[in-house]
Amino acid sequence: MRHTPHFLMTDVAEVRRLIAASPWATIVSHTDAGLVASHYPVLLDTTAGGDDEIVLVSHVGRPDEVAHELGQHEVLVVFQGPHGYVSPAWYPPEQFVPTWNHVTAHCWGTPEILSDDENFRVLGELVDHFEQRMPEPVSLDVDQETARRIALGTVGIRIRVTRFDARAKLSQNKAPEVVERIIAGLRGDGPYASPALGDEMARAHAVRVTGREAQGPRRRFRADAPAADRP
To answer: Whole-model pTM?
Structure first.
């Protein structure tokens, strides 16, 4: 991703929060046949690693494990949180260049292939994770025999993330009053409404203001700031 110093997200806890909130991920492999990309739900593995680590579990449908050459090399897993267009209509008149705000994490690691039993456990946790919001959650335990037979068409993976590159680009280079207008616009009913992005901005700026209060006034965006710091 583009190197934008004050948009960098380096806190492991924040990256874990993004993954937990946005589990639909893109898995990218550089194979002998070229680049391969697939899309699957990915969860944090609560049975491995500590709070200062990122360990992922997921599955792929056969024959994706062959296409990705899983276990033979590093893969890139991309998580995309809330994102959306930011119109200059929400800026002062002299600021007329729009931007796109987003929260994104790129995670790298080499997949470990799970046993059939562990894969079935992970699949069960995946179903339970999403079903918990339903009025009457459905579990794979309804018919384990059938579920296990279907599970044979999948390959479970665990990825211990060795490095990540994450961004929270949420108008940190704008004055507080401009940020408030952007949040209001995103939470409104206009063509570029995105309440989730508005909430993410509100959260990020509340933390930013609290964290800076003891350090003095907020740093403002300057017209001569480096290009990497601009929208």
So the answer is: 0.87
Tell me the residue range of the domain where 59 lies: 5-172
186 lies in some domain = no
- Rounded to whole angstroms, how far apart are CA atoms 127 and 148? 13
Residues of the chain predicted below pLDDT 70? 211-231
Burial of 114 (0-12, 13-18, 19+ CB in 10 A): buried
Sheet hosting strand 99-109, strand order edge to edge? 34-41, 24-31, 75-86, 99-109, 163-169
User: Do 27 and 41 form a contact (C-beta atoms < 8 A)?
Assistant: no
**DSSP code at position 217:** S
Residue 188 lies in a domain: no
| 138 φ/ψ angles, rounded to the nearest 5 degrees | -105, 140
> Domain count of the chain?
1
Evaluate whether residue 40 is within a structural domain.
yes
Q: Flag whether 106 is in a domain.
A: yes
Task: State residue 50's pLDDT score.
Answer: 80
